[in-house]
Structures are given as C-alpha cells and as structure tokens.
Design goal:
The chain is of the alpha/beta class. Helix 6 packs antiparallel against helix 9.
Length: 610
Amino acid sequence: ARNTVKSVIRRWEVLSWMIKQTNKKRGVFLRLSRYVLEQWPLFLLALALTLGSNQLSLLGPKYSGAAIDAIELERGVDFPAVWENVIRMLGCYLISAMLAYTLSVVMIRLSQRIIYKMRRQVFEKLMTLPVSFFDTHHTGDIISHLSYDIDTINATLSHDLVQILTSAYTVVGSLLFMWRISRPMILIFCLTVPVSLLFTRFRSRKVRPLFRARAKKYGELNGFAEEMLTGSRTISAYGRQDVIASRFNRINDEAMDAYYSAEYNAAMLFPTINLINNVSLSLVAIIGGILYMYSQNGTILQTSAFFITLGGVAQFVQYSRKFAGPINEFSNILHEIQSAFSAAERVFAVLDEAPEKEDDPDAFELKEVEGDVQLQDVTFGYTPDKTVLKQVSVHAKKGQTVAIVGPTGAGKTTIINLLMRFYDHQSGEIRIDGVPAVRIKRADLRLAFNMVLQDTWLFCGTVYDNIVYGREDATPEEVYAAARAAKIDSYIRRLPNGYDTVLSDDGVNISKGQKQLITIARAFLSKAPILILDEATSNVDSRTEIQIQNAMTALMENKTCFIIAHRLSTIQNADTILVVKDGTIVEQGSHEELISRGGFYHALYHSQFC
C-alpha cells in the first residue's frame, strides 16, 4: 500500500509538472502573439502575401498535370493545350516567387519593429528595477537578455514565422487538392502523418529544456567574460592569465556541451521525419501507378473514386511532396522555435521582475532640503536570515560632517544604501528634515543626495559632459570652478581638446586618479544639500589628497556630509565619527574624543600611523 501511494504521488508530481510546463509554454506563445498583433497592418499584409503566394504555388502542379494529360500517344499531342498549361504553370511560380520575396521583406520589417519594442521595454524595465536586482545578477547575464536572447527571438520572428505561415497554408491547400484528385490515396497520410506528429511532439518535450539550459549557460559565459575583461589589468598584474583562461575554458566547455546536447537531440528529429515522408511518397508513387494501370485497362470506371489519369498521378505526387515538405521543414526549424521560446522565457522573466516599490499616493515632496539626517534604531539585513545593521542610531545636523569608519564588511556602505533608499530598513526609522524617509518620494529623496563612490563611472563623451552629468543647467564658469576645486582643471586644459576631449568607454584613456577627480568635480557642481563620499580620495596621491581636503572644507560648507574612509587622516576634522563593527556602532564622537578613550578607534588609528 505504501508503494502504491508513493507511485500515485510520483505520477501526480509528474502530471503537475507537465501541466505547469504546458501552461508556461502557452503563456509565452500568447505574449509573443500580442507583440505580433500590435503590428496588425504589417501582419495582415503578411497574411495576404502568404495566401497569394501559396495559392499560386499550389496551382502549379494542377497545370503541370493538365499538360501531361494533353499528351496522348494514341490521339496525338494537343500542343496548344500543353503550351497554355505550361505558360500558366510558369506564370504561377514566377508571381508566387515575387510575392514570397515581398513577404520576406515585410516579415523582416515586422520583426524589426517587434524587437525594437521588446529591447526598449527590457531596457526601460531595467531602469525601474531596484538596486537589489543588479546586486544579485551578473552584468553579462543581463546584457545577454538584450543581445543574445532578443536576437534569437528576432531570428524566429523574421524567418521561422514566415515558414510556419507558409507551411500551414500549404498543408491545408495540398490536402484539398489531393482530395479532389484521389480520395483513396489520402489514406496513406492517415498512417504517416500521425506518426510524424507524435514523434515531433515527443522530441519537442525533450528538446525544449535543453535549449533553456543552453541559454542559461551562454548567459553565464557572457557574465564571466565581461567580468574578466573588466579586470584584465588586475589579471595581468597578478599573472593569472593561465588560471583565468582555464576557468573560461571550463565554462566554455559547459556551454558547448549544453549547445551540443540541444542541437544533437534536435537534429535527430529532421532525419526521422524525412524518412517517414519518403516512405509516404514511395507509397503514393506505387499505389498511384497501380491505380493508373487499372484505370487504363478499364478495370476501374472513369466515374469511380479509384479512377486516376497519368497527369493526376503526377499532380498527386507533387501535392504530396508539398504536403510532406512543410512537415519536414517544421521539424527542421522546431529546435530554433524551442530556442526562441527559451529566450523569450528569459526576456519575459526580466519584464516580470517587480520594479522598485512605488511611492505612496500621499508621499511627501521634499523641497528646499535643509540636510538634517537622523537614523534611529535602524536594523537591516539583505536576507532575512542575516542581519547586517543592528539598532544603528546617528543624528547628522545641517552642515555637519559625519565620518563612518570600521573594518571591511562592518556595514558602512549599507548605511549609505539605506540613506539613498536603495534598500528599505526592516525596523527603526530614518528621517530627512524630520520627515520619515519612507514617506518621501524617492526621486526627491535621491536628488537631495550627491555621491562620489570609490568605483568611478564615466560615460563615453566629453570631459565637460561628464562633469555636468548631474546638473546640465550649469554654466561653463561653474564647471570650470568645480574642476579647479577638484584640482583637475589644469590637467583638463592640457588635454588635446581641453574640456571637449572625448573620453572613451568608462574613461579608460585617463588614469584612475584623474577619473576620480572628474567625478569629484561632478559632485562639487551639484547643489544637493547632502554629500556622500565613499572612499572618494582612495585613488589619488597624498599631495593631491591634502589639496582636495582643503577644497572640500570650503565646498562642503552648509552641506551635510557623510564620509566613508579607511584613511583615518582624511576624517580627523569630521564633527562626528561613527566606528562601526559587526553592524553595530561601537564608538561615536570626535577624533580627539575617540583617541582619548583608547578604544577600537584608537587601535585603528595607531595601526595606520605607528
């Protein structure tokens, strides 16, 4: 009895999984169909061209059969009838080819519009997703959604969809013509077609998960390649080229294995279906020849359903090839369709990601921010089972500078993430000018902050454009003043085109320190009342660091500043220093106060200067 129950449960689980997969497949198909139907004028034109092209193509065998029947050895050849039917046949095929070419152009245009909209939607969706999404997904994998996955869908829409439309009409049309020629011979397909369909269905169920796995492996491969190419200098500096190459080869081997497995199992479908179709064509030729001989001998009456002419046999053979051909072609492109469905699942998974939580309808609009920031008993963890910050409390009044120090992983950057509402805290409260941060519109809240991070980011554009990125209404004089304050003005003016010099991707044609100074100039230009500096001077030399500190003293006047630093020399003038350890503020006070206590900060300070 126990084994019976286990067997029933196992079968129910398998059945539930199959139902779930079927519903998922149906959902993907319906969503792709909506994209197609939104372009209904082009789609209707494509349908019209499909009908016209295939109808003319189906008329070709009819006229060729009529031309054959016009050739009778006993009565002579009716040349006018032969030439008339031949000309009609050639005309049908020529016009059909022209319509088919036009159909291909229309479908390419249709697919371009769909893919353009899909790629735009994915990118716009990415812009609405919370920071947590990018923290948990590889950049290369995200890029593969915009490139590889959508290109795979594009290939199916532009080519395979045409094939499907053409095949559907050709199969139905050929069947109708064969029904008119010889109904008994159609029984041959009652045996071969179900076998083809069942085998195709069986193989497609096995192939689709393999193509899904292939898409996943290619995403991992792209992610690894993007990460390693970004860190190419570090790899060279540590002589890790062979190790990284070995890792890439392993991931590449896994991707190739996934590719081979998917293509191998898909490739088995085409030869099998082709074998079944060849058997059906052979049966058609044999049985058609037998019926023709009996018809000629008078054994079968001309009014009988078994009567057939030589032209009729030729017509039936041609229509049977047209009937079997689309089935054969469909089995050939089935793996491409499966691959497109797997790619569509990945794309729709991004589109279905929950965006950053919307502001409450009565969210407060933060205007004329003073810069008073308060954290009270704030507790937070990136995952429910691991708390990063525990009961953190701090009050930064307008114009004060708060420095946050502590060992790596203590939770310093997490405090900044909570202030910017990249994440929402689980308990406690964060207030900006006395207003709870969760009740403030995110856009207003984030505009109140300006950030200079340790990891600099510059886009491909001029130096001037990179500096005014956060404030495009700034005047040239303000830009130059900000650059001078950041001690980068003289360097910029020595560039070939000065402020109009174009920086390459992420500013790789300038040094790391110069990139940092440009981002600092960008921050100086901002009018945001609250400034966050996350290791902002980590990439400059000691002399430049002292110059920047002097400039900051003037530029941060009347601004509330949060500074994360490992170099304790840069934060000695801070109004308040928070010492964070294991997610808890263990010490808090000015530099002199903390030194005099002889605690954890005292140990950190003397570890750097003693």
